[in-house]
Structures are given as structure tokens and as C-alpha cells.
Design goal:
The protein is mainly α and about 200 residues long. The protein contains 9 helices and no strands. The longest helix has 24 residues.
Length: about 200
């Protein structure tokens, strides 16, 4: 069992990892990266979808986390704190490099990826790939803030308050943005694909 698995007898919680990392424990910081790398990657790649740039930015995020760890006081959840660093790093990259928007990427790649990742029948694969590609296109057409909200809420399982803290928005704004974004997706996708965002 992993040290990050709550079922493991040797489980180390986030607070312990943070304290040990602050004290200079490199193994603890490595485990901290392992615990939060999915969240960081999700936030970064929603804003900067280019693979190489995204990977470099994820490394930059954890470098910043390492450098700024001493300033973390526990007033917000660590996931919120690290999420803000990830988002700001990605947005700053966009401003500096003026990279292509997510919606400008060729979507054939999504179709190929979705088709080849399924084991069922070719017909099922194709239909699922088309639905996924359509969903990707519609999500990509949303403003960056709405894309980030949907990802944090639906993929990361954050609640309204946590999403608001990561994005620096009041809960009421998060709720209204999510409502409008999901409504738009439901209208444009129809009942079948919209189940993923309801």
C-alpha cells in the first residue's frame, strides 16, 4: 500500500507532508508532488493544452510551491493554495507567449485517441469518440474561467466554496457560471452527451 493511501497503516496525511517538506524533507516533498500532481496538471492543461508547454509549467508550479511553501499558513486548504499557483502560472504563460486557445487545436486527435482507447465494437468506439470530440469542442468554446470551473467541480470533485477559493470568486458567481455553462452544454449537446456535465 502507498503512503498516500488512507487505508495504509503507514499513511501520511497532507498536513504532515507539508510540515516535513517545510523542514527540508525531500521525500515528503516528493510525496506532496505525487499527491497533488493530478490537480496541478488538470488546471494547467485546461488553460495551456500544449503538451510540452504544459509539462514545463507543471514543473514550474512545483518549483514555485517548493520556494513558497514557507509562506503557506494553512488559512486555506492546501489544494486551494496550490490550485491558485497552478492557475496563475498558466495564465501568466498565456499572457507572455500568447499560445493558441484550446479551441484552435485540431480535434481529429481527440477522435483518434478516443477511438483507439476503447475495446468494444468499432461502431460503439466511433459514436463515443464523436460524442467526446463534440463535448471537448463545446467545453473549449467556453471562456477559460468556465472551463476551469467545470474541471474543478466535475473532475476534481471540489465543492462551490473550494472552486471559488481557487479561482478567487464568490460562491454566488461560481454557481451562476456553472449553471450557465452546463445549460449551454446541455442545449448544444442534447440529452445524451450532456449527462457528463449535469
Amino acid at each position: 500500500m502507498s503512503l498516500l493511501d488512507p487505508e495504509s497503516p503507514s499513511f501520511i496525511g497532507p498536513a504532515d507532508l507539508i510540515q516535513r517538506s517545510k523542514a527540508g524533507d525531500r521525500e515528503a516533498f516528493r510525496l506532496l508532488i505525487e499527491r497533488y500532481q493530478r490537480l496541478v496538471a488538470m488546471i494547467v492543461f485546461r488553460i495551456v493544452p500544449h503538451r510540452e508547454d504544459g509539462r514545463d509549467l507543471c514543473q514550474d508550479v512545483f518549483l514555485k510551491v517548493y520556494e513558497q511553501l514557507g509562506t503557506y499558513r494553512g488559512e486555506a486548504e492546501f489544494s486551494t493554495w496550490i490550485g491558485r499557483i497552478a492557475r496563475n502560472t498558466a495564465l501568466n504563460h498565456i499572457k507572455k507567449k500568447k499560445v493558441l486557445a484550446f479551441s484552435d487545436l485540431p480535434h481529429e486527435a481527440h477522435l483518434i485517441s478516443a477511438v483507439t482507447s476503447f475495446a468494444p465494437s468499432p461502431d460503439y468506439c466511433y459514436e463515443e469518440a464523436v460524442r467526446n470530440a463534440q463535448l471537448e469542442r463545446e467545453v473549449a468554446a467556453l471562456p477559460e474561467q468556465d472551463r476551469s470551473m467545470l474541471a474543478l467541480f466535475h473532475q476534481e470533485g471540489m465543492n462551490y466554496e473550494e472552486v471559488g477559493r481557487v479561482l478567487g470568486l464568490p460562491v454566488s458567481s461560481v454557481k451562476s457560471h456553472l449553471f450557465r455553462a452546463r445549460k449551454r452544454l446541455r442545449e448544444r449537446l442534447g440529452a445524451g452527451a450532456a449527462r457528463e456535465v449535469s
